[in-house]
Design goal:
The protein has ten helices and 21 strands. The protein is of the alpha/beta class. The longest helix has 26 residues. It starts with a strand and ends with a helix. Heterodimer of SbcC and SbcD.
Length: 390
Amino acid sequence: MKIFHTADWHLGKLVQGIYMTDDQRYVLEQFLQAIDEEQPDAIIIAGDLYDRALPPVEAVDLLDELLAEIVLKRKVPVLSIAGNHDSPTRLQFGSKLMSEAGLHIVGELSSNLQPIVLNDEFGEVHFHLVPFAEPSLVKHIFEDNNISNYDDAMKKVIESIEKKMDKSKRHVFIGHAFVTPYGDQEDNTSDSERPLAIGGSECVSAEHFKPFHYTALGHLHKAHYVLNETIRYAGSPLKYSASEANHEKGYLIVELDADGQVSVEKRPFRPRRDLRIVEGSIQEILKHPISEDYVFVRLTDLTPVVGAMEQIRTVYPNAMHVERKTLPRLESSEQGEAIRREQMDELSLFKAFHQEILGEEPSNIAQQLFEEVLQEMLKEERETKEVVVK
């Protein structure tokens, strides 16, 4: 079975005040062309179809248009889930009706997890669609008070799936989570993706996905595999922040043979405009050839530049941001390594701020209170989306 794996479209994305809808349409039209050329048996979109729970009309229209082209015109099944940016209720609406046409979208998690079964010349392939869900919701759905973090929650969901799994069939997991090899904390691949939690409690161990022949993930914006080559992120189709400037964006073509052996090939997207970082003095930059790319400019001038953005836009009319390049404030890690403040997580920033203002490390109680407040803010932010929708 040939599968296209993509994720994190973030339709309606606003980057530095610029809506990316036209750029998203440009690369996703390439996706449609690839479907015509490759004739896949199924399309996976692993969450974050939209950038927020209430996307702009243009984003909704674009998704509707694309899904109609894929499912109704080309007759290719689409399997998709809600990510942490999506509204579960909004995506879930009409799912039973749409599934008859080949559009399978799961927005809300359920304890009665049933796979979507597709067939090829070798038999059945079972697709397990698991949308993003808070640990507290998983605890409630499965009535398990031992669930305290995202790793516990994912383990519980997979255990539930495995109990009913027909091991003679091929199985594909579709999820939206921060997966690391063994559940240890790692840096995010993009500044444009908000953390799910703090202190490493958002990380999920890749070892949980061993029962599946292929695991299609969304959430992290850089395409890569975790632990082994069958557990993969497709990454986002476009660069959505300066931290993604060096990413190679595209989608994955996954081939699943009769025995469930997997081969994966990455195909690139060609953006309408690249997003990149430009560095140099104002005089050096003004000598560059005119470019329509989205650029983040770092000026190396030692003195302030008057009207910097106006000057830069004579060369880069779509410049997004300009800043003076300065030596970053460094903090020391426990291992004595220097760390840029912009690379630090929220808790580390709090500790550094506390040390700078009060001259001492925060107490354990202060750290615990900070973590609880920040965690509650992250949770309320996601819940507010649902309240607005309902």
